[in-house]
Amino acid sequence: MNHKTLIGVDLGGTNVRSGLVNGQDIIKIDSDRISSKSEEKTVIDQVINSISKVINPEVAAIGIGVPGILDTKEGIVYDVQNIPSWKAVPLRSILEHHFQVPVFMNNDANCFAAGESQYGKGKGKNNLTGLILGTGVAAGLLCDGHLYEGRNCGAGEFGMIPYLDHNYEFYCSGRFFSHFHQSSGEEVSKRAAAGDPAALQIFQEYGKHLSWLIKTILYAVDPEMIVLGGSVSKSFPFFEATLWAELQDFPYQPVVKNIQITASEIDHIPILGAAALYFNQKT
């Protein structure tokens, strides 16, 4: 393991969290609210302030995960969720000029995949899919040891693929529980943990929908491992058996036999995932 000292930044729509990462450990974290409705420079200054609280002279690079559209080659962030003033922000050049270290950027799903590959259950895997199941559905793809972003950093948007009368995100994110069962995934999970048959049945239904998304991923990229993240992944034990049962009709059974499907167990994965962008450089 490379014991570089790095900074990972998780930029959300309302908060920014910066972590100082050394080896496998986060040794310092700063978490601040951002003035999301403020002008562009105000929010940039708040990001810089958060990083400044954890940086030290040993830091080799800064990685930042962004919930929006970005040009990773030019380092430009477009239309960040819940920050209306960020239309086209040259964030990489701003941060590199200020801190005088290399800066790497990507979307939050790609950061998740990179983090699992470097710090989590995906260590040693060259082909991995990090599948986030939360308020939405998104995936990061690790192919031949490196993130595959596509031309516009849009690869892995499996949630937007049409499915039944809507798309996979509608049936495989937290929206499934609120739309079809008028409850939150967290509430259904609590009921399932208490042995409520109705709640357990809801997760069986969810597992069947998720199996079709998993099959789509197997057809498209055939990874070694799929790591589930996001709030719904915490309930994996309640739909794991149904998911595997539904995969038994997949036409290429060697693929099913060899695939590993697991849930992330890493704390602060957005910070570690952002830091892991440093290791994604192509040489």
UniProtKB/TrEMBL annotation:
<dbReference type="InterPro" id="IPR000600">
    <property type="entry name" value="ROK"/>
</dbReference>
<dbReference type="InterPro" id="IPR043129">
    <property type="entry name" value="ATPase_NBD"/>
</dbReference>
<protein>
    <submittedName>
        <fullName>ROK family protein</fullName>
    </submittedName>
</protein>
<comment type="similarity">
    <text>Belongs to the ROK (NagC/XylR) family.</text>
</comment>
<dbReference type="Pfam" id="PF00480">
    <property type="entry name" value="ROK"/>
</dbReference>
